[in-house]
Amino acid sequence: MRTPPDQPVATTAKTTYDYKIGQVIVASSAGTMIEWYDFYLYGTLAVFFSTLFYPQGHPTAAFLASLATFGAGFAVRPFGALVFGRVGDLVGRKYAFLVTLTIMGGATTAVGLLPTYEQIGIAAPIILVLLRLLQGLALGGEYGGAATYVAEHAPDHKRGYYTSYIQTTATLGFFLALAVVLATRVSVGDAAFKQWGWRVPFLVSALLLAVSFYIRLKLRESPLFSKLKDAGKTSKAPIKESLGSKRNWKLILLALFGATAGQAVVWYTGQFYALYFLQQTLKIDYVTSYLIIAAALFLGTPFFIVFGKLSDTLGRKKIMMAGCLLAALTYVPIYMGMHKFANPLNPIMLTVFVLIQVIYVTMVYGPIAAFLVELFPAKIRYTSMSLPYHLGNGEFGGFTPLIASAIVAATGNIYAGLAYPIAIALLTFVVGSLYLPETNHVRIWDEVEEK
Length: 451
Prior knowledge:
Strand content: under 5%
Order of helices and strands: HHHHHHHHHHHHHHHHHHHHHH
Number of helices: 22
Number of domains: 1
CATH superfamily: MFS general substrate transporter like domains
Largest sheet: none
Shape: globular
Structural class: mainly alpha
Number of strands: 0
Helix content: over 70%
């Protein structure tokens, strides 16, 4: 891969950059994937955790409490976006996502050492929630930094393509979590896994943290941010400038309701809710359900790159809106099909139905990093883009499994929970189609090259 043509990525006034865009992508993506792995380990084991950290006697209530704890990590992500977004816009992109990586890895490793409810009582779920909050804060600062860092190395005409590699990391992190959990469970057996084996995937995070921290430590600051800093054009108060401007608030709200809210519910429905539907509703065993989801993720992941690249020519908006609309129109027949092929079990057809959902995920998620980067000015980009992303994914997306499962529990209709993601996806389709600007023509380097 070549460095971006006709842009000052090779040198700035004070810094020389002798690595290529491919190295930037690999180094950034590796750390981001590990953070997603850490964050989604809990989601992968949410059904199992309900038996470890909550009082027994009412399995449905324990499961919903476990999902609520899963959601707690999402609730604080917007606060992490503001805290670490400010650091990234003041100090630099690299420093911010080194800090977030350390916090995430430390909190995840601590979960692997946490005593269960049987051992320390009510303190167990309390500490677990606190650790989930730390994970959420860290992730709130991670994504915006990684996406911005790659985007600010990329040429304007290939920004969707290059940032789409960062977009694969969330699904790859989930895939890695599934793979490690499955490998551990098969290796030690069900009895040992329930007793102590569940800790292994969390403790593995300490090793992954060390490796990814070393890789990121060798990175230099984004060339665009360095040039902005050398020119004295960085923001002195990123949060104030992001939240104190009527124009910027309009962009934040438009990005939230016209893009990230719908993207979020499609993402979490197509992967996490699909997993819980297989396990809780269809009563498919853990190994088979993990393999179905993992196979769909493996087959679908390359489409992040496909749609990211297409967005450079077709536009970000068209692809994202199409993904939201298709998801909203087809979720009910897809889940009816899953129910049909669960008994007798047909894992191939179940994988196909999950894969279709993953394709929708790649349509809404593949182009969105480039879109958010292009929507906001460089000096407050980290803070401003992180906020609507994590409001959408934290509040709308992260609670999708809980809200959908609660609707099913309240109504007794196994398809009723789909009303939530369908409604949000349709909302985003309408708002985005009517008001969302197309951004694939934006030249982000023009801002720092102005005299």
